[in-house]
Structure formats: structure tokens, C-alpha cells
Write a structure and sequence with these properties.
disordered N terminus, 5 strands, 4 helices
Length: 185
């Protein structure tokens, strides 16, 4: 019985850690959480463009996009991911978003990555802002490297790209992600 309790504790630890990280929003002095996140989103946008110049077509021709400058993922039996981002349309911030994901299966480790979701048309963007966007279990993000964006296209109105920041777990899977959207007031 005690062994099961220890195993369950180890499995739930990533979920607790990721949840704790998501609720701790401490911006540098003089900068609000939203200002910090949008500054980091701008830096992430620059890094995506530097890593793969062909992604510029997506930034320039999509109806909008959501960019997550940092998503943190931890796993030990149960995996959990969480990150905040900005949602843009025509170059302007229209809202904020939070992504959460929980996975069950054989997994161990942790990582941090950036993610950008492009919306091909207004219908796809509206699905996202209403909370109706769902990824299937076999959906995947394209790992950003030079020329990767040129070889990829939208699937069901969205295109997803990710860039690893660091960690010991590599996975581009996005199945099971859930998004909350809050419009700019």
C-alpha cells in the first residue's frame, strides 16, 4: 500500500509543479504580468523568424495567431503542461490565452518550449476564441528548423509550430491541449 502511495505521489508531482508555475505570475518591477508576457511573446516571434525565415509567410498571411513564449511540461506517469500567451489579429493583441494539457502514459522528464498556433481564416480564429478548438490525439506540432514552415500547411484551419527551450523530454505532440481565451478589455 505504501509503495502505491509513493508511486502516485511521484506521478502527480509534475501536475502540481506545472499548476503552481501557472498561477505564479510575478513580473519585473514596473511591468505587469500582461506586459511581461507580451514582451516575451514578441521575443518568441523574433526567435521563430530567426530559426526559420520561411515562417514569415504564416505571420504575414494568417488571419491571426496565438503565441506562447514559454510552456512548461513535466511528466512522471502523468504529464502536465501549462503556458500563457497572447492572441494577435492584424498585428494587434486581441486577447490572452492559457494552455493546459494533461497526459497519462509512460513518460518521465521535463521540458520548456515555445509554441505558435496560426489561424488560416476568421472561422479558425473564432473557434479558438470561443474555446472550440480541439486537437486530436494524433495532432502534432512542427518542430521549427530552417525551411520547416515552407514544407507545411494548415490542417483544419490551423498550423502549429514549436521550438524547444530546454529540458530532457522531447515531444512535439499537442493532443489534449485545452485553451482559455480572455479578450483585451
Amino acid at each position: 500500500m505504501r509503495t502505491h502511495a509513493i508511486a502516485l505521489s511521484l506521478c502527480l508531482a509534475p501536475l502540481a509543479l506545472t499548476t503552481a508555475c501557472s498561477t505564479y505570475r510575478d513580473a519585473p518591477a514596473g511591468e505587469t504580468w500582461a506586459q511581461e508576457m507580451l514582451r516575451e511573446a514578441g521575443e518568441a516571434r523574433t526567435l521563430f523568424r530567426e530559426q526559420d525565415p520561411t515562417i514569415a509567410d504564416f505571420f504575414e498571411n494568417s488571419t491571426g495567431y496565438a503565441i506562447f513564449p514559454k510552456i512548461t511540461k513535466g511528466a512522471a506517469c502523468i504529464g502536465a503542461s501549462n503556458g500563457d500567451g497572447g492572441v494577435y489579429q492584424e498585428g494587434l493583441v486581441i486577447g490572452y490565452t492559457e494552455m493546459t494539457q494533461v497526459n497519462i502514459g509512460l513518460q518521465l522528464g521535463g521540458q520548456s518550449y515555445r509554441q505558435v498556433i496560426f489561424f488560416q481564416d476568421q472561422r479558425a480564429l473564432d473557434r479558438f476564441t470561443r474555446g472550440d478548438l480541439e486537437f486530436s490525439a494524433n495532432a502534432s506540432a512542427v518542430a521549427v528548423e530552417s525551411g520547416a514552415a515552407a514544407a507545411n500547411d494548415y490542417e483544419e484551419g490551423v498550423a502549429v509550430f514549436s521550438m524547444t527551450r530546454g529540458g530532457l523530454m522531447f515531444e512535439a505532440s499537442i493532443g489534449g491541449q485545452d485553451f482559455d481565451f480572455e479578450p483585451v478589455r
